């Protein structure tokens, strides 16, 4: 569970092709980072995988099944946004429970998953608060908690830490990496931050203008960048 394959996936907005035919394999349990400058198509690619945008061509396979036309809620993926998208009038517990209520998960199972997510994210003492009574880091944890309880086959993160200050970012980076080690679930993580990419990824996908410039482990990209763009972006000594 959690294997994602893109076959000649393209995306046009009107006449503009923002993603030319693109091929990519993401293995089960991998932590994959999409990195590249602003406007290169990172969010669009993630939204195509999530099903929040329709492809203009090509196929998206999830665990070997064609999911190109599958609605977002049926793809078994959970997206975490930088804006948190929490409901301000609901408690943390209700925010986390929301996707499970929508999916009709039985109450005792909801409670079990909330306890487990709250424990993993250090939110046990905050379940009865409203989002407005939390720090930025805690709000981001609630957003992650809401993804965890769906027990997705993959997590999709779109620049989840960009609203946090630098010190908090480092801590959250570690928390997300630890979560990945614990859950062993596929994570696709979008960022324009090279340090995040280099420290978190099993596999980095470097994008420029909707194209994949290079795919490799942080060490591979650092040691053998394919071109000057990758070298400059990753900060290789060459
Ligand atoms: P990134 O996340 O890497 O900053 P995006 O995926 O948001 O980049 O955008 C890639 C390109 O697609 C940009 O040129 C952007 O202006 C364009 N784009 C994104 N969404 C839309 C849209 N809904 N309509 C038209 N153009 C869009
Ligand atoms: Mg973006």
UniProtKB/TrEMBL annotation:
UniProt keyword terms in alphabetical order: ATP-binding, Nucleotide-binding, Transport
Domain ABC transporter residue range list: 4-234
Highest rank taxon of the organism: Bacteria
GO molecular function term, any single one: ATP binding
Family: Belongs to the ABC transporter superfamily.
Name the record gives this protein: ABC transporter ATP-binding protein
Taxonomic classification: Bacteria, Pseudomonadati, Pseudomonadota, Alphaproteobacteria, Rhodobacterales
Included range, full protein: 1 to 238 of 334
């Amino acid at each position: 569970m959690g294997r994602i394959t893109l076959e000649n996936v393209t995306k046009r907005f009107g006449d503009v092709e923002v993603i030319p035919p693109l091929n990519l394999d993401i293995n089960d349990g991998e932590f994959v980072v999409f990195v590249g400058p602003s406007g290169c198509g990172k969010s669009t690619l993630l939204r195509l995988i999530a099903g929040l945008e329709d492809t203009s061509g090509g196929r998206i396979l999830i665990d070997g099944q064609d999911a190109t036309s599958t609605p977002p809620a049926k793809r078994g993926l959970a997206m975490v946004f930088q804006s948190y998208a929490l409901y301000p009038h609901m408690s943390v517990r209700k925010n986390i429970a929301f996707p499970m209520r929508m999916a009709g998960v039985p109450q005792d199972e909801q409670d079990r998953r909330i306890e487990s997510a709250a424990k993993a994210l250090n939110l046990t003492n905050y379940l009865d608060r409203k989002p407005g009574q939390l720090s930025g880091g805690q709000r981001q944890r609630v957003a992650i908690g809401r993804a965890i309880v769906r027990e997705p086959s993959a997590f999709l993160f779109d620049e989840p830490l960009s609203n946090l200050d630098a010190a908090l970012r480092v801590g959250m980076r570690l928390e997300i990496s630890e979560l990945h080690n614990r859950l062993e679930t596929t994570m696709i993580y979008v960022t324009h931050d090279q340090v995040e990419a280099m420290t978190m990824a099993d596999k980095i996908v470097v994008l420029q203008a909707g194209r994949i410039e290079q795919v490799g482990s942080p060490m591979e990209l650092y040691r053998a960048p394919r071109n000057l763009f990758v070298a400059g972006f990753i900060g290789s000594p060459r």
